[in-house]
Amino acid sequence: MPHDTNLHTALAAIISPERVLTRPIERVAYASDASLYRLIPRAVVQPVSVDEVRALFAFSHAHRIPLTFRAAGTSLSGQAITDGILVDVSHHWKRLQIEDGGTRVRVQPGVIGGAVNAALEPYAGRIGPDPASIDVCMMGGILANNSGGMCCGVVENPYSTLAAITFMLPNGLLVDSAAPCADEQLRMEAPEIVEGLFELKRRIEADPALCDRIRTKYRMKNTTGYSLNAFLDFETPADILGHLMIGSEGSLGFIAEAVLRALPDYPLKYTGLLYFSTVQEAGRAIMPLRYSGTQTLEIMDRAALRSVENLPGAPPILTSLPEAAAALLVEYQCITPDELVHSREAAAQACRALSLLHPPAFTEDPHEQAAFWKLRKGMFPSISAMRRQGTTVVIEDLAFPLPRLAEAITDLQALFRKHDYDPAIIFGHAKDGNLHFVITPSFGDEENVRRFGQFMADMVSLVVSKYDGALKAEHGTGRNIAPFVETEWGRAAYQIMKDLKALIDPDGLLNPGVLVNPDPLAHLRHLKPLPTVEPEVDKCIECGFCEPKCPSRRLTLTPRQRIVVRREIARLRASGEDPAMLESLLADYQYAGLDTCAVDGLCATACPVNISTGDLVKRLRAEGHSPRAQKIAHSIASHFETAEAIVGAVVRLGHIAQAVMGAKGVIVLTQGAEHLLGRRLPKWNTAMPRPTRHIPPTQREGAQAVYFPSCLSRTMGTPPNPPGRPSLIETFLTIAERANVPIWIPKDSRGHCCGMPFGSKGYSQAYRETLHRMLGRFWEWSEGGRLPVVIDASSCTYTLRTCTADLTPADLERWRQLTILDSLEFVHDILLPRLPICRLPEEVALHPNCAARKLDLSGKLADIAGFCAASATTPQNLECCAFAGDRGLLFPEMTISAAQPEAQEVNTRTYDGYYSSNLTCEMGMSLATGRPYRSFLYLVERATRTS
């Protein structure tokens, strides 16, 4: 798969070259979505305007290359992949605008669904669709798939809440359905399409059986095929075509923008978990509970409950449930207290008539409610984590008539046994008859593929022939159900769909293979290979939940893409095919996969199976180090005090050089040295702190805490401007003195380090030895754990609080007896109550860095700033700055790219101060924004001056 220079050149003529991706590593990275399918695109392009999209449509037709649009790539049915040109709209197309006082919201396809709800929150509003992936999936996919969720049913989905839509047809025609001239524009510029739409509408309306079929199908959740109800619900061509775009999976046109009606949010909730002896008893409870007013009814079979019974916080009762048991998670959602009272009464009355295995457990406590939902949402990741190596995760999405839901569950369980799919679980949105099941098949050989094909055939027969249900309720048709659309809908409806596709996309170049597919075995082709690689990689289900958290996602690769490329490298190594391709991937992976990973671990906070790609990258970095490099790292760790002195001297020389030749001169000098040495060197920047002049003496006697200044605070802990400001260490001591809380800095603190600089680079031996020495000193300084140890860098605190896997048994025993505090905790919990604070008439911006967020200290930073300043703002687009120790010095492009959204938001106005809790993060944010970020300690010091 060589780099297609001709295609790149041709596409670069219509789209800026840096937004045309044709290198093998780029194409492989986009070959997967969250489904069981994989196709390697010929090119990935990232347009920024409708003019560029129009040019891409023209290019596709001129060169006969298929075009597929993709937003977040969380699609579960293979509708976001292609072997043609993949049009990625996730990096741009971010417009989000609240309209009409919060009753409507305008969105572009690259906006994350959760961000829309966050923007509507001040208006007590939300959007209707509520998919489980709402914090990662984007509006392009939500609209194109007509996504559902736990509460939305058929009345709050995108189709039902659409107010207006702007879309582009494959012929390049851009239509805004809200424009007064939209219908006239269509008649003038696309008369054949208008006539074709009305002809299809006439055919449907002339067939009473078909009309009835369509009405019946859309009374339940259903995303199989095109939204044929648009022909019955609307009369004008713009409205018909606009609503056909919803659920079309990007096969009819490009959704450039949409306006959705906002719905009221429910601040009050009444949530309960109900247990039943059998799934049939649970099924019989659905209608009474639904009539009682529940917004949510989630059903879980015994296998699903078993998959989460060992999760932290799971009710002990789960382990004792009988083999045939089932549960319903019930939630009433209310706006007013009176409604909440009514819900309590309705729930009690409904439950009295049910055959419950145990008394109902209802709660209004948000923490207890979150624990219930943690169980429900933990089922998919739990079964995914339990699967065997080399197997994939298939989550299917069916709808059944409500009265027969329990019977359908029983039949599905029998299918799992028949085809030997264990483990398999069933859960879903029972209020709407919508079931999800998860199986973990292997596609490693023809026999397993054949078995999966037989299972699918039996499942289709069960859903369609026995129940007349929907093969897709909310996940979109995609590749795995496209061969069965006619089976579900019947010949007449399917012919309408085929004719619609031919009318709008006569060349069949727009996302071919989804919705309308003549190949009866399409669902068994292009199955995703999952070679065994390494534990972190093998666990990955390629869902993409990690991607919004990744600092490098706009520069190189996301965690999912790092794993996708690793799998392709392993596959090529094992097969021996395409050596040139393998060589290219290996060469590019060093920078894209390893060098530009911030290893901040934020990806693990969103990963359903708890993968920290940062840990994988650290291990891969370690494997790439030569014995000589490991030896040098060990030597530096053993003589760390000397290394500190060298760093301080270099920083001092840098500031002298900047004073003589300017910052640009120092940067040019560094670049010249890089060229001569042939390796990356740290880059100078104007945010570089000045050296710490000295560490003031402190007394051990009477100290209430040990203060361990981080190595960076000791070497370069003084703000760059204005010259002569006190160092971070001096400032911390001043605040503690004002609070009358004596703290002691050990004289031998120099030469000690938490080990993070070595661990993040993969020098594991140097890291462990440094950590061992550090904990030994902590034990001595703290008098065996009597005194807390306070650290002034959140990243160091996080390292020392999460290092247990790298400790010897003796060190682990000592670690358990130590109290290691971050400066945020120490100031907030101990100093702040004792300080004379005079709130400054200032507005400040905060950057809770990723270590502080993982330690759950963002709230304490906000509280401290709120005490000290008139207002404190944490940006909505909070990102990791990706400075990552020295990464931001070696690869400054990482920081500029990672912090771009936050920097843009911060720079929309001017604040009186900018604060964080980690020196390197303060450097990174200063570099990204051009604003002087400082430690929050400087804000506290100014607010506690008595004169």
Task: Describe what this molecule looks like in 3D.
There is one protein chain. It is built from 42 helices and 26 strands. It is an alpha/beta fold and 947 residues long. Among the domains are: 268-475, FAD-linked oxidase, cap domain/gating helix (Vanillyl-alcohol Oxidase, Chain A, domain 3, 3-Layer(aba) Sandwich); 640-828, no CATH class; 835-943, 3-Layer(aba) Sandwich (Rossmann fold). The protein has a seven-stranded antiparallel sheet, sandwiched between helices. Helix 23 runs antiparallel to helix 24 (579-595). The mean pLDDT is 93.
CATH class of the domain at 268-475, anyone?
A: Alpha Beta
The protein's oligomeric status is single chain
| Shape verdict | globular
Q: What is the CATH architecture annotation of the domain at 268-475?
A: 3-Layer(aba) Sandwich
Helix percentage range = 40-55%
Strand content: 5-15%
> CATH topology of the domain at 268-475, what is it called?
Vanillyl-alcohol Oxidase, Chain A, domain 3
Q: Could you tell me the mean pLDDT?
A: 93
C-alpha-based Rg, rounded:
30 Å
- Find the structural class using helix and strand composition: alpha/beta
| Number of strand elements | 26
Question: What composes the largest sheet?
Answer: 7 strands, antiparallel
Low-confidence parts, pLDDT < 50 over ≥5 residues? none
In DSSP terms (H or I, runs of 4 or more residues), the helix count works out at 42
CATH superfamily of the domain at 268-475: FAD-linked oxidase, cap domain/gating helix
